[in-house]
Amino acid sequence: MKNLILSLFVLFYVTSVLKAQNENADTLKNVTLQDVIVKANRLPITLKSNPGSISIVTPEMITLMPKTIGAEEALRLVPGVRIDNQHGGERVHISIRGQGILTERGLRGIGVMLDGIPVNDPSGFAPDLYDVDWPTVKNIQVLRGPAAGLYGCGSSAGILYITTNDGGSIPIEGEYSQVIGSNKFFKELAQVDGTQENINYRLSFSREDGDGYRDHQAFWGNKLYEKINFTPSDKLRITQIVSHTDYFHQNPEGLNRQQFDNLKQANPDANPFNEYQKTNRTTLGLFGSYTINEMNDFEVTPFYRYWNYKETSNKAAEYRNITNPGVSAQYNLHLTSGNVMNNFSVGTDLKWQNIGMYKLQSGSDPNRVESTDETNIETDSLLANQIIYQQSTGLFALYKLDVEKFNLIGSIRYDNITNELTDKMVGLDSSKTTKDFSKPSYRVGASYGFLNEFNLFASWSTGFIPPSTEELANNPVGYSGFNTHLTAATSNSFEIGARGFFSDKLYYELTGFIMDTENDFFRFKQSGRGNQEVFYGNAGNSKRYGIETFISYNILHNLSLQLAYTYADYRYTSATVDPVYTDTNYVLTTPPAEGQYLPNSPKHQLYSEVAYSPIKSIRITLSGEYQSKWAIYTDAKAYNNELDPEIYQNWQDGFTKFNAEISYLWDLGVLNGALSLSVRNFTDEQYMAFTEPDPDGNSYQPGPGREFFGNLRIKF
């Protein structure tokens, strides 16, 4: 708590000193948030009237990303969000209000929409955010809290609604940027865009690579993104998307307590087994809207995604070939009578996924020379050979009412998810495993604008969290087949909050919430299955309380402060588990007990950022991040210090770190751009970025020390 108070004092002191310097300096560019249209609700509504908690990541926030590659940079000022960057590049896993914290990688229970195209698979799992090239993003809308009533099982924690930039207003223009930094980091991006008659286009390509701040943590990635907006008439608008991602990253794994003296090292298994993940993915998407008349309109979004994935570990090399088509359709009816506006919508979301997967036993090469090659030793021992077929069907109805200062949004949805696994290594009579889930979900929210400075909102919503593809396919009783012991988790959440706008000077949002979850999850491992084999079980119930605060304050025309604070109290409230998970001959963990805190969930998180422009062409930014201590394990014995203290220590100390950046904005006729220099963690704080509840004790993932980055951006 001392560090939290110190961080607040330092940042507010800096702003007060700068405020006293010059009341007449040139202005910083500001964003008027109250007129922002929120699209994440599937029915557009202004931010001011939105009947639920939501955060808007503006272009100005995105331009302050030093590396321009990480979701933790883009979402740094979003309360309620916890982001673990697992290797210094773009491999992250994200949770909102504690939902998804146990996922080995990716996003579980968080719906992701990229230019209207869903990223989640039929089970609700989004494997990564590699397709997002953050410097090309226009804004991000983060709807916090269960939104299963809107988007289904993949949205039980919230929504990331990401919109990229359109092309410019002239026939052709472009942009080039380059970032270099510590640990041999390099990123280069080139873009061409424009508008010609009724066609608006943008095409970008980027390349990034780096060694990472730990051993065996190197990565590289190529991204191509093409977006065309075609408007043949006032009634018809079509957006066409092509995205291709090729991404490789080594996996240094977590450390144990005995490896704390060298936080840059990798786990001893990582190098000789050449542990890595490789993704090669292409997405084709189309968004079309047609206005029949002022009362009726229709939207349709077909997409097709196909990709190859490989992951190596100290036990197996896993290969996956994946196809993932889908389509969404929504009909909207608008009825207006005087000052009363009614909006009705009905629609469907359909997704399919076919995964061909096989595993070969891995071998170790003690003499391997470290490099970014994709070679690894694989024996002829086939551990798994199977096909997974999935289908999800979602039917929904939405309603929105606007009556002067009062707004109401409600939704009801029914989802059915089918999963079928065919094991090609056994006889036909026992080759198929199925696991189906279905559930209705609901959401209702209301807001009332007493004043422009005080808008009150409240919402109630339910969540539906079936086991994801990753969790089902990791079967503790064998290398193939589903984990049929898993059941879906469900949640109920209530929130109440307020937001307000004081002209263009101050914007705030304050939300309190409570969420009850039944059949919550925990992680465990099994003897002989390797460090990378993680399994999941149902742990009973949990209760989450929290407070989320965001403040944006333009202290002067040239001085602004933004602050995001989260208070989180997340605990298991009961331990009712399937007996199979308590068989000590079978499992290397004890399920969590009543009263345990959920892992990797600090009670306090604070991020503050001050931006100051002494003259129009110079911008100086200082930021600070604080996180309090958190629990590491779900294992009840490890949590209660009943296991070897040399390996297990349940509580992880928090940290405070500071960043700084200076930017020069320049203009040379037809060319303009920016040059920036930044330093992250300039006090060189040694800290643990996040921890995993690893039953083997390899739970600790250290964060980077002091890092420097330079960024040159040119527009023409």
Could you characterize what this model shows?
With 716 residues, the protein is mostly beta strands. The chain has one domain: TonB-dependent receptor, beta-barrel domain (Maltoporin, Chain A, Beta Barrel). Helices cover 6% and strands 55% of the residues. 49% of the residues are buried. Residues 4-31 have low confidence and may be disordered.
How much of the residues is beta strand, in percent?
over 45%
Number of helices: 6
> CATH topology, anyone?
Maltoporin, Chain A
Q: How many distinct domains? A: 1
CATH superfamily: TonB-dependent receptor, beta-barrel domain
CATH class type: Mainly Beta
What is the CATH architecture assignment? Beta Barrel
Which radius of gyration do the C-alpha atoms yield?
A: 25 Å
Kindly state the number of beta strands. 37
Distance between the termini: 48 Å
Largest sheet: 22 strands, antiparallel, barrel
List the uncertain runs. 4-31
Features:
716 residues, mainly beta, Maltoporin, Chain A, 22-stranded antiparallel β-barrel, five-stranded mixed β-sheet, 6 helices, globular
Task: Provide a compact summary of the structure.
The protein is mainly beta. It has six helices and 37 strands.
Give the helix/strand layout:
Layout: H1 2-21, E1 37-38, E2 45-46, E3 54-57, H2 59-63, H3 71-74, E4 81-85, E5 92-96, E6 106-108, E7 110-114, E8 117-118, E9 125-126, E10 137-144, H4 148-151, E11 158-164, E12 173-181, E13 185-196, E14 199-210, E15 219-230, E16 236-250, E17 276-291, E18 296-312, E19 316-337, E20 340-363, E21 377-403, E22 406-423, E23 432-451, E24 454-465, H5 469-473, E25 489-502, E26 506-524, E27 535-556, E28 559-572, E29 604-612, E30 618-627, E31 630-631, H6 636-639, E32 651-652, E33 655-668, E34 671-680, E35 688-691, E36 700-702, E37 707-715
